[in-house]
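We now fix the convention by which a protein and its fold are recorded. The integers have meaning only within a learned vocabulary of local backbone shapes. A record is reproduced here so that you can trace the correspondence yourselves:
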Amino acid sequence: MVSVTAGWRDVLVTGMGFCLPGPHRTVCRTGGDLWRTVSRAASHLDNDGLFYGRVHLAEEEFAAAVPELDERFRAHYNDVHRYGLVALVEACEDAGLNWRGNDLAEAAVLTGRAGFDTVLETYMAGVTAEPSRTGPAEARALLMRILLSVTATDVASVQAALLRSGGPSYSLSCGCASTNALLGVAAQQIASGEVDLAVVTGVDAYSLDYIDHFEELGRASERTGRTSSYSAPTTRLRYDRPMRPYDERAEGFNLGEGAATLILESREHAERRDRRPYGRILGQAVRRAATGSALTPDEDGAALVRAVRSALRATDSHERIDPAAVPVVNGGAEGDPLFHLMEFSALRALYGPDPADGPLLTNHEACFGHNGAPLGVIGAAATLLMMRNGQVCPTANCEKVVPEAPCTVVTGEARPLSFDLALSFNYQMGAAGALLLAAPEPCAVEYGHPAGDHEH
């Protein structure tokens, strides 16, 4: 075993919290809630025939979760603020951190965002308001919402203020791989000694009215007999039926909303607090497809292959953990055949053409919907819970696996398996993120330092 690079520290995950769609219009908030959902492959997407991952967070439940919030501010928080704060306080309490005190005074507070519907709604309300026809109270309320909501860093600012943190605080937008990438950033900060604690939150909420408008524009673009050099991506958003990753009936994906938070700590900091970790972050990388178009999908999976190989590289001598030593993959294909093609191509390149040599593949996006920035945190949390419980959970809504799958897709019932290494994937258009996760203690096949996409 190669020794850990001097000065680099283990990065542990010690807390998790959520604000996601739950069963019977409840809210999935704790790691236990998440496990009950993913271990049973339950799907919380059906809203009376509208397949959308909606968070039914009542104002009373939000106020009870964070009663200390100043009412002047709480009245003007939008959905992403509310979802993010609920997930944050749940994660802090799970980690045994007093968010009301000074436990997180030096913590990094980092947020991932993919969609900006809530920003646009507030911004347009301010732009279209006519000052001469707006009363003083309405104008003050609108200005407060604008100050709180019209930047990409709004959630990070709200969360850092709640924690009274003076540490690094910013947002990252890397599409639906945002928090996959951000977990690598936080791991670097901890491994290098910049901080001892990091809070990583992914949060998104969408406007169905805006989405319907864009869908109409898409249909309008097809009402012409002219040929065009423009080729739109072939992914398809669905509201009329459930998403089915890796299933023969897969023909599109369902959106979702919500938030997810992980607490990351150095091993030394966690041991001083006597906290039992869920596991470790060993490596992370994001890579783009080498194409000349911003809209070209990565059908051959080359970007994912390079991201995985970079995440598996663990020493300054560029030795790697062999993919064969990683028996479980939490996939990121959301039920659209285009992403199945990309992911399957990458898995063949990494593990070989024989399905018997491949990993067990699972996917939980159909539990809560394709919810953008939270995906990386949800994937990491679900993977660490599978590792802790010795089970690989079944893929939600997958009943008949497509024959071209290059490895065993877990369906039906959870598969018992003791494992201490796993990969979790997330994608944005033309790019892929890979996160390498491990059990709390080093295993025999590991090498090197736990840095996110770091090279010496």
About this structure: The radius of gyration is 22 Å. The longest strand covers residues 11-21. Residues 1-6, 229-233, 448-456 have pLDDT under 50 and may be disordered. The first helix runs from residue 31 to 38.
